[in-house]
Design goal:
The structure holds two protein chains of two kinds.
Chain A (H helix, E strand, L loop, with lengths): L3 H14 L5 E18 L2 E21 L4 E10 L6 H17 L14 E6 L6 H11 L4 E17 L4 E16 L5 E8 L4 H17 L10 E7 L1 H11 L6 H5 L6 H4 L11 E4 L18 E6 L2 E2 L6 H7 L15 E3 L9 H5 L2 E4 L1 E9 L4 E7 L3 E4 L2 E5 L4 E5 H7 L1 E12 L11 E14 L2
Parallel strand pairs in A: 4-6, 8-13
Antiparallel strand pairs in A: 1-2, 1-5, 2-3, 5-6, 6-7, 8-20, 9-10, 9-12, 10-11, 13-16, 14-15, 15-18, 16-17, 19-20
Chain B lengths: L1 H4 L4 H10 L7 E17 L2 E19 L2 E7 L4 H18 L10 H5 L4 E5 L11 H16 L4 E19 L4 E19 L2 E6 L3 E4 L2 H7 L5 H12 L7 E7 L1 H13 L4 H4 L29 E3 L22 E5 L2 E2 L6 H7 L7 E2 L8 E2 L4 E3 L6 H6 L3 E13 L5 E13 L2 E6 L3 E5 H6 L1 E4 L6 E10 L4 E9 L2 E9 L3
Parallel strand pairs in B: 4-6, 9-16
Antiparallel strand pairs in B: 1-2, 1-5, 2-3, 5-6, 6-7, 6-8, 9-23, 10-11, 10-15, 11-12, 13-14, 16-17, 17-18, 17-19, 19-23, 20-23, 21-22
The chains are: A alpha+beta, B alpha+beta.
């Protein structure tokens, strides 16, 4: 991966030189050099090193006869061994493809955009050094999870002169610990600068939390309960917001779970403020078109849904004004603002109810009404009169976003937690969220 | 695109690696994976997005003293292979005291040597289906759907996938597989008086060539989808009560996937997935004993069904694929686990170690997990219900990490009263617990109700992998199930 930026520039220049009249080309790069080490029972199940680079070309051609645009994309694996002959063949194949296609009225033209560069260098030791530390730290502990370390790259350029580069060196340990009674708690450590003491503290805290899980399990009946959603549980709900809940295109196609909030027919709680905030520094501000989003944009202010995420393509088709969202119109750097609930007051304010450390496998159960279903998971506790009783047997919930972020919302913590993206389908995700905990009344459990 | 790149020869590159002393370890294997995927879409009768994606790389495995290291690269030069062999070698060496399991009988049991070839059944290569043909086909379908009364949005898409896997190992494996896969879905979303409903084909995936696209006759499905989405606009909510439930294959395949397939994966039972996809309610002691369902329930791992999405000749550990029973006459008999999990657990498994691409190691995956057809006709199943409901086409799914408590939503349902199909209801959902649900199975549909389905999106693993699975399923009837409607 040495000189990847230079290789990207050289490759792009070569491809731009071979464009025909009326054509423009956008190019996106996503690459990584990563170590993935998978653990079960505190031992290594699989250790995989990956170096990969993916190039996605987006060719647009103007059609003078129809005064319209048409286009298509083509992606391929790229390395220092990719020859100019191969690059030319890829471009020719894409040109032939576009030639055959009819005009697409919603093709977004490339623009001569801006230039940016952000290189986040970390301080990460050789991964074997971290493994040596594990040999001591994980003695007598049942840990499952994954240690990931390396550098991720994203870049965008186009034939009109736009150029963006982003790289980030980081590591994380995403894990869970298990007791002899098969009870579990979740833990995580993520950083750009490895700190052995902080990692040890994370594991120590998880071990302490696990002790609570050995208390007798409470089996609750379905019904409505007061709950505290810890930041990791809120993260699961935040994740499903990316499935059309904030999408301008979904709204216009009748498929937006928060559509009634956008129309002002329903409001969320006045306590609730949510932003797309790139000052987190975990994901690039540029999207796949190379457009730079505002550093911070309000989505919900005092319970009013002010903005949906709108891409350029949505603007073209539906007339909503673009706010430089990505094509998927999912949040890329979501932040829910903190409130006033102090950490030490959480149990007292919860009084009698359920402390939800994590949730699992969320999906829409009535998308039109913003209703989601999912399960409790990892370290969820029954609390009586402000005291932890013990773990609960896993339960299924079925509740609307309007109840969770609206009518039922009683308080938001004064602290929030940054969570780095840990997804790795095809490659390591980048980005993250910053979320507080929420105290919610009338949260419905069904099974 | 493959024709552009067919100058690449894995065997030649491996020979060069040997000649330069790059190959290393007590054993090594190299899996080349090359895939081209055409994504094509039209909306509302107009041309939509078209994307061609290609990926090509190798996964190098090096085994030293029973421990294996993995390294993957898309740099297909001698330099790239040198990097991968060194990384895999060092990875294997680093495991030592931290290794979960030291594999025994590696060359006979864990990476047995095989040669041969598998090709999807097909007559015409997918590369022969031109961009113009594809866009015309999809514009016609989405245009036809858009003509429907109250239809506000229509969509038709397909993915045409060609995958080639070549595998060479130091103990003599040399096999190739070539898959030709088409997945597709069409949908119509309609709106009336503030009610929005969607009806779709359901995501379909099969191993076919271009002939499979033509044989499907996409246009003939449009009339039914438009009729049904309009029925839903005026339909009452699904009732909230307990009743008998008939599930068509386009919903039941996901029920099988989530509540039989995943809990039977041996790596889940062994705990590998505890931090991500989850554990399993099934324990090693359950094999040979657990009554998963009544005697009429027979579930197989069957990689031999022509056109089913995950039919293949070898898994990615190089083990030959054969049909095996997982649940026989209602009793759990084998797990979904490849040779590594079989050795670790000492349980019976199947040839199901699969990787989603060149950049991920193989692990236990579903392939084709099927319910064998039974004796009942659809009419017999309907007639047997005093109070029931027939649900079709999945739209929502969720299940806990042990695979017990599930909830599914469907697009379309009809009530059954006194043995007769009755009113259409909207927003149909049902929920239950796995073993109780399957033991409530009363009828398994016959061959006439049997359909081959598949999904390109089964997610699992750390690092994450999404893989294609097949499910061939008859319509089935379950008793006393909790059903409910929308908010």
């Amino acid at each position: 991966m040495n000189d990847l930026k230079k290789q990207f520039e050289t490759m792009s220049s070569f491809l731009f030189k071979h464009l025909d009249e009326g054509e423009s080309l956008g190019i996106n790069l996503s690459a990584e050099q990563s170590s993935f080490i998978r653990f079960n029972h505190s031992k290594i199940r699989q250790r995989t090193e990956v170096e990969q680079c993916h190039i996605d070309m987006d060719l647009i051609k103007s059609c003078p006869e129809t005064k319209g645009l048409k286009g298509a994309s083509l992606s391929f694996s790229f390395s220092s061994s990719t020859t100019e002959e191969q690059l030319h063949l890829y471009l020719q194949h894409l040109q032939k493809e576009v030639e055959q296609l009819p005009v697409n009225p919603y093709t977004v033209a490339h623009e001569a955009g801006e230039k940016s560069s952000e290189e986040n260098k970390g301080e990460l030791p050789p991964i074997n050094e971290i493994l040596d530390f594990f040999k001591e730290e994980l003695s007598g502990v049942d840990l499952a999870g994954q240690l990931v370390s390396g550098t991720s790259f994203r870049a965008n350029t186009n034939s009109l002169g736009q150029m963006h580069w982003f790289s980030s060196e980081s590591m994380y340990l995403d894990y869970s610990l298990y007791s002899a009674k098969e009870k579990a708690v979740k833990g995580s450590y993520a950083s750009t600068h490895y700190n052995k003491q902080v990692l040890a503290q994370s594991i120590h805290d998880a071990k302490e939390a696990l002790k609570v899980m050995d208390a007798p399990t409470t089996e609750l009946s379905p019904g409505k309960y007061k709950v505290y959603l810890a930041p990791a549980a809120v993260n699961e709900i935040a994740d499903i917001l990316g499935w059309h809940a904030l999408s301008g295109s979904a709204y216009k196609q009748g498929d937006c779970p928060l559509g009634e909030a956008f129309e002002g027919k329903k409001n969320l709680s006045p306590l609730f403020n949510m932003n797309e905030d790139f000052s987190l520094g975990l994901s690039p501000r540029f999207n796949e078109l190379g457009e730079l989003a505002a550093e911070k944009m309000s989505l919900v202010k005092k319970g009013k849904l002010e903005n949906l995420l709108v891409s350029k393509s949505c603007e073209l088709e539906f007339g909503l004004k673009s706010n430089q969202a990505s094509g998927s119109e999912a949040p890329r750097s979501l932040v829910i603002e903190t409130g006033e609930l102090k950490r030490e007051e959480i149990l007292e304010k919860l009084d009698t109810g359920i402390y939800l450390s994590n949730l699992h496998y969320l999906n829409w159960s009535d998308k039109q009404k913003g209703r989601i279903t999912g399960m409790t998971r990892f370290g969820c506790l029954w609390v009586e009169n402000g005291k932890i009783v013990g773990p609960i047997k896993d339960m299924r919930f079925d509740e609307t976003l309007y109840q969770i972020f609206g009518d039922g919302l009683r308080a938001i913590t004064e602290f929030s937690e940054v969570s780095m993206a840990t997804g790795s389908y095809s490659q390591r995700d980048i980005g993250g969220v910053k979320l507080p905990g929420l105290l919610v009344e009338g949260f419905t459990f069904t099974l | 695109m493959n024709k552009m790149e067919n100058h690449f020869d894995l065997a030649k590159l491996v020979q060069e690696c040997k000649a330069h002393g790059i190959t290393t370890g007590d054993w090594w294997g190299v899996r080349e994976y090359r895939e081209s995927n055409q994504f094509r879409m039209a909306r509302n009768g107009k041309n939509g997005q078209h994307g061609l994606s290609n990926t090509h790389g190798v996964m190098v495995e090096v085994m030293i003293d029973g421990h294996v290291g993995y390294a993957a690269t898309d740099n297909l030069s001698l330099g790239g292979m040198k990097w991968a062999f060194e990384k895999a070698h060092n990875g294997a060496l680093s495991l030592g005291a931290l290794s979960l399991h030291k594999f025994k009988n590696w060359e006979s049991d864990i990476r047995p040597a095989h040669t041969g070839e598998y090709r999807s059944p097909m007559q015409r290569e997918l590369s022969e289906f031109s961009a113009r043909e594809a866009s015309d086909y999809l514009m016609n379908i989405s245009g036809e759907l858009r003509k429907g009364t109250h239809v506000m949005e229509s969509m038709a898409y397909m993915m045409l996938i060609n995958t080639e896997i070549c595998y060479i190992s130091s103990n003599g494996s040399d096999w190739k597989q070539n898959f030709s896969i088409v997945t597709k879905d069409f949908s119509a979303t309609a709106q009336k008086n503030g009610v929005v409903q969607k009806r779709s084909l359901g995501m379909q995936g099969h191993q076919v060539g271009v002939e499979g696209i033509h044989d499907f006759e996409g246009l003939k499905h449009c009339e039914r989808l438009v009729k049904e989405v309009n029925e839903l606009l005026d339909a009452p909510e699904c009732p909230t009560d307990k009743r008998d439930l008939l599930l068509k294959p386009d919903q039941l395949y996901l029920q099988v996937h989530e509540s039989i397939g995943h809990p039977l994966e041996l790596d889940r039972i062994l705990g590998d997935e505890r931090n991500y996809a989850g554990w399993s309610f099934v324990s090693p002691e359950d094999f040979g004993h657990l009554k998963y369902g009544p005697d009429i329930l027979n579930v197989t791992f069957d990689p031999t069904i022509p056109n089913e999405m995950a039919s293949y000749g070898f898994d990615d550990n190089g083990v030959k694929a054969t049909k095996e029973y997982l649940i026989k006459e209602g009793t759990l008999v084998a797990g979904i686990g490849g040779v590594e999990s079989q050795q670790r657990s000492q349980l019976s498994g199947v040839s199901c170690a699969r990787a989603c691409s060149w950049n991920r190691p193989a692990m236990d995956r579903m392939a084709n997990i099927n319910i064998e057809p039974g004796e009942s006709s659809l009419q017999e199943m309907i007639s047997s219900c005093e109070k029931g409901i027939l649900m079709e086409t999945n739209r929502s799914w969720s299940i806990d990490d042990y695979r017990n408590k599930f909830q599914f939503g469907c697009e379309y349902a009809r009530l059954i009263e006194d043995g007769q199909l009755g009113a259409v209801v909207k927003n149909p959902n049902y929920r239950g617990s796995t073993v109780a649900f399957w033991n409530g199975l009363t009828h398994v549909g016959n061959q006439d109700t049997f359909e081959v389905w598949g999904s390109p999106y089964c997610g699992k693993g750390e690092p994450n992998q999404v893989i294609r699975v097949g499910h061939a399923i008859p319509t089935c009837r379950f008793t006393d199930i909790e059903v409910f409607g929308g908010a």
